């Protein structure tokens, strides 16, 4: 069986989550908008899931808008706030997920768009935020809580405080952070937060936008008025139920999960130091416990990824949503990493199903691969 080290792209569906979903794929099939008994029962299941998701990030259930995933939630957050609040400008970091960067780019003909600076450790420069805030009013800033490639945690709370001090608004994509670190919506001080089910051992096809109810959001999808008239469409009930159960489990196991994932990362990075030519990205910054992004000097990352795949070890070269792009990681480019090094980048992201023995197998292969490559 293959060793899956690509958990930042997706996680395996927890069997407990699957069990919670199954009745809503068969027995309880009514439309949750129906007012009869069967419909109300399904509606109750969505309400429970909303409470579970809200509880994970210490928000109120009324602040949860269910979506089809993180990408839709990011679109709703940015476009919804820009149009709903009639804002003038947007600031975004260059290390964001494509579902943020591409949304912002689509708006640059209508609104003023500014790219924030990133340091060599992979963190957004708060100095560049200060400059933006000083020169703009009526704005939105979007900075992710933790980067999906490097795992670097961003100074979101500080940036949110700057935004609020100038009557601006703040969105954070917390898709990678939730379930791996403590995330508190209120304490972060953001107005909008994006979540995704399949990053926390839940099903694909469910996500959420958490919002401060003081903010006006313009809907992107019109129709039946589901989800507080902010996201129309009959709900994906089974996926939402699964999302709720996954959120409940993530909260229950957070400390245990953090400790275990961190032990796997430490085991990998300790042994990586013994391999000549290793470059670790974001190693000086605070990072997610499960993520290691590195490069082997003089070795092509795509070739290494394919050789690992042949051996049954599945890793990534960066963001899964950009994996068809042969260009070096846009995150590493923003960090000022030399292109030849960036092209050798490999991301290992651990999940709770991974074992120390699997880490050792990866290290053994890397040592053999580097020996073969340097001997030619």
Could you explain how this protein is built, in words?
- The chain is globular.
- Helix content is 40%, strand content 13%.
- It has two domains: 3-11 and 254-370, Alpha-Beta Complex (Aspartate Aminotransferase, domain 1); 15-252, 3-Layer(aba) Sandwich (Aspartate Aminotransferase, domain 2), CATH 3.40.640.10.
- It is built from 13 helices and twelve strands.
Cα-to-Cα separation, first versus last residue: 31 Å
Strand order of the largest sheet: 2-8-7-6-5-3-4
Topology, number of strands = 12
Q: Which CATH architecture of the largest domain would you pick?
A: 3-Layer(aba) Sandwich
Helical proportion?
25-40%
Biggest sheet details: 7 strands, mixed
Which CATH class of the largest domain is shown?
Answer: Alpha Beta
Can you give the mean pLDDT?
94
**Radius of gyration from CA coordinates:** 21 Å
Amount of beta strand: 5-15%
Oligomer: single chain
Shape designation: globular
What's the CATH topology label of the largest domain?
Aspartate Aminotransferase, domain 2
Task: Give me the secondary-structure topology.
Layout lengths: L2 E2 L10 H7 L15 H20 L7 E4 L2 H15 L4 E4 L5 H9 L5 E4 L10 H10 L3 E4 L13 H10 L3 E5 L11 H4 L3 E5 L10 E5 L25 H16 L1 H19 L5 E3 L10 E6 L4 H10 L2 E2 L15 H5 L4 H4 L2 E5 L6 H20 L1
Parallel strand pairs: 1-11, 3-4, 3-5, 5-6, 6-7
Antiparallel strand pairs: 2-8, 7-8, 9-10, 10-12
Helix pairs in contact: 1-8, 2-8, 3-4, 5-6, 9-13
């Amino acid at each position: 069986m293959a060793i899956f080290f690509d958990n930042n792209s997706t996680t395996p569906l927890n069997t407990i989550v699957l069990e919670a979903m199954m009745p809503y794929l068969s027995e309880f099939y009514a439309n949750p908008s129906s007012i009869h008994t069967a419909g109300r029962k399904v509606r109750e299941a969505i309400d429970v899931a909303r409470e579970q998701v809200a509880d994970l990030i210490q928000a109120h259930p009324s602040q949860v808008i269910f979506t089809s995933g993180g990408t839709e939630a990011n679109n709703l957050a940015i476009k919804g706030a820009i149009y709903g609040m009639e804002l003038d400008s947007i600031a975004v970091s260059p290390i964001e997920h494509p579902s943020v960067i591409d949304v912002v780019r689509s708006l640059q003909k209508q609104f003023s768009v500014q790219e924030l600076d990133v340091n060599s450790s992979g963190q957004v420069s708060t100095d560049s935020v200060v400059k933006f805030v000083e020169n703009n009013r009526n704005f939105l800033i979007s900075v992710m809580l933790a980067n999906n490639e490097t795992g670097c945690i961003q100074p979101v709370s500080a940036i949110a405080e700057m935004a609020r001090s100038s009557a601006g608004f703040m969105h954070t994509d917390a898709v990678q952070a939730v379930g791996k670190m403590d995330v508190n919506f209120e304490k972060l001080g953001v107005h909008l937060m994006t979540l995704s089910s399949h990053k926390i051992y839940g099903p694909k096809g469910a996500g959420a936008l958490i919002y401060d109810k003081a903010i006006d959001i313009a809907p992107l999808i019109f129709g039946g008025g589901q989800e507080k008239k902010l996201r129309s469409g009959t709900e994906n009930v089974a996926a939402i139920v699964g999302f709720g159960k996954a959120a409940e489990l993530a909260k229950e196991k957070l400390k245990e999960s953090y400790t275990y994932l961190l032990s796997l990362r430490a085991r990998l990075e300790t042994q990586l130091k013994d391999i000549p030519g290793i470059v670790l990205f974001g190693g000086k910054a605070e990072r997610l416990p499960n993520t290691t992004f590195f490069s082997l000097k003089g070795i092509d990352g795509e070739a290494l990824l394919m050789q690992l795949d042949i051996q049954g070890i599945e890793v990534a070269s960066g963001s899964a949503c950009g994996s068809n792009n042969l260009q070096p990681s846009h995150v590493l480019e923003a960090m000022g990493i030399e292109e030849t090094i960036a092209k050798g980048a490999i991301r290992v992201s651990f999940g709770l199903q991974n074992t120390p023995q699997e880490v050792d197998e990866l290290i053994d292969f890397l040592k053999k691969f580097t020996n073969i490559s340097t001997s030619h």
